[in-house]
Amino acid sequence: MERILIIEDETPMRTALADLLAGEGYRALTAADGESGLERALAEKPDLILLDVMMPKLDGFAVCAELRRLASDVPVLMLTAKGQIEDRVVGLDAGADDYLVKPFSTEELLARVRALRRRAERKTKSAVKIKLGGNEIDLARQTAWRGNKEIHLTAKEFAMLRLLAGAEGKPVSREKFLDAVWGYTAFPTTRTVDNHIASLRAKLEKNPDAPRWLKTVHGVGYKLDL
User: Could you tell me the domains of the chain?
Assistant: First the structure.
């Protein structure tokens, strides 16, 4: 069952949205302010977020910007009474995928939810499997094989590979690894990233000292050279 997080401070609207989505077969998660909504989004990793703009503690723009800074690619549909072009631009620049102005019809909301989920599914399918020579890695199922032999990768190592694959050959900084894989409430060091990359190289590279795929970008971090 797909999970949709509703971050909305107005109780009647939050309840109505949760009931609507539950009636359509989704599992509705809720948060009543931006701060708790951000925490729940990072902890529970929903399939989509409905995000109000005007909220206490953190507004929707700040929540969305922080999610993107932490490398979360969860689809975000912003819901707001603000209809000015400038506000829509701010929301989209913060990383929102779509923008719906209140009041809106339930039919339009559900249509946009379905459209965002289709887009996310296409994106996921395109990057769900990677091949590194004789190694085949399924990022969705979190399995890795070399021929008939399974390679044991940890959850953190799969998360690092997912981040590298999603960067499409661009370097990923150590700080971004720490934010996206360990979370903003954890306090690991950049050496933690280096140790996990060394472990991945030992498991996936023929010559870990001269890696073919997991390349170091000096002064930046690492990239996946497919």
Answer: 3-126 (3.40.50.2300), 129-224 (1.10.10.10)
